[in-house]
Amino acid sequence: MTSSLETGPTRSVRGRRTARASGDERERAIMQTAERLLQERPIGEVSVDALARGAGISRSAFYFYFPSKDAVVLALVDRLVEEAELSKEQVIAQLASDPVAGWRASLELFYAIFGSHRALIRAAADLSAVNEDARALWSSIMEGWVADVTEMIEAERERGVAPAGLPARDLATALVQLNERALRAIFVEESPALAEERAIDTLSHIWLSTIYGSPAPR
Amino acid sequence: MTSSLETGPTRSVRGRRTARASGDERERAIMQTAERLLQERPIGEVSVDALARGAGISRSAFYFYFPSKDAVVLALVDRLVEEAELSKEQVIAQLASDPVAGWRASLELFYAIFGSHRALIRAAADLSAVNEDARALWSSIMEGWVADVTEMIEAERERGVAPAGLPARDLATALVQLNERALRAIFVEESPALAEERAIDTLSHIWLSTIYGSPAPR
DNA sequence: CAACGAGTCGACACAGTGTCAACAAACCAG
DNA sequence: CTGGTTTGTTGACACTGTGTCGACTCGTTG
Predict the structure, then answer these.
(1) Which residues between 108 and 147 in chain B have a beta carbon less than 8 angstroms from any beta carbon of chain A?
(2) What's the rounded Cα separation, in Å, for the pair A113 and B67?
(3) What is the per-residue pLDDT across A158-167, written as a single tens digit (0 to 9) for each?
């Protein structure tokens, strides 16, 4: 799933310690700078020059590490998604034992992970408007979630706790999109947006109502 | 509600017929060109120069009519929203007599209006990532819809057909956001997206389930 | 006819992007 | 230790797009 352009040519394993800061360090410095700057202003207002200076190199040196400023954001997103992937397993397990708590835990996980990287999420969203690669990356992430949710819904239906209704995949798509949209609105401080304190309640109410046909399964 | 920067200085009423094309005509020509070009490529790839040439003037003359290319899109959106506003009244009326059909009609209206201006919708969405004014305009549009839906939900609850549950405004916010997101995915041909033929069915199922507590009110 | 204002244009300054040839410093093979 | 290779780094350059300005045209109006 890792995007093809996330890293520059510096991919071999090296462990030296040289006088000048080595490639990997620079690469990390650039990413770090990006995360920092994105907390202050939108991606559109961050120039390659700013990124380079922040990492202590010249603008042209930047291009040695990344093909463009967008690629830095994509690398960052890639990393975030990998983190998220790890926590996923445990949540799925919980669903079998206690559905209500399980779904809620999923939403909370989602909320926690993205909430703690608001600036990055926003940059990724902004980028998707302009950049084909960003769009593709985000698409594949969404696809992954939809697939997971579809599977979970189908499992619940087979267990007999959830009634048949909308095609599971359609329902999953809509719910994942709802989450994405609603959480983004909150994180970016758009308006209208759900009240942040009640957001998880609101969303899980909608998820449960539509999946189980009522606000809580029997 | 009309955005403050939608039009250039040419705002007085004039009705002359001059040798060279007059201001209003040019203004319209620019907007028309914008709509045409946006059908071919995203806003980011449309330059002021292209807009100007399309309208038969030089790039610098363009600035006489609009302060920036973004302002053209905002003017277009403004116009679209005004159109939409007109059809709204009749739908609200229907809700009282037949709720299910009424909600469905709302969704269909939404779908029809925005579906027939996909390129513009996309440009507006793209712009929101970059442009503060665009964000503000879209926000106010969303606010309007949320207010309408909130009111409709409350009316249904007072009539006793819909049960109390989530705060009406929260529910309305989530549903409007769901619609926005899901329809945009379809129109922009993102993936994942709802199957277009079933989109209205899917959405109305979710609306009805969450508003009435079951897929159909008694 | 003179003054005015709407409309137009070319030239300019500016900001940002991406590329390139050339240079520097460490590393490694002989 | 020496000379070639790899890894980094740089300034200069070409290019694209934006927005501004002063000067010009040409109907309109007093």
Answers:
(1) 125-130, 135, 139, 142-143, 146
(2) 40
(3) 999 999 999 9
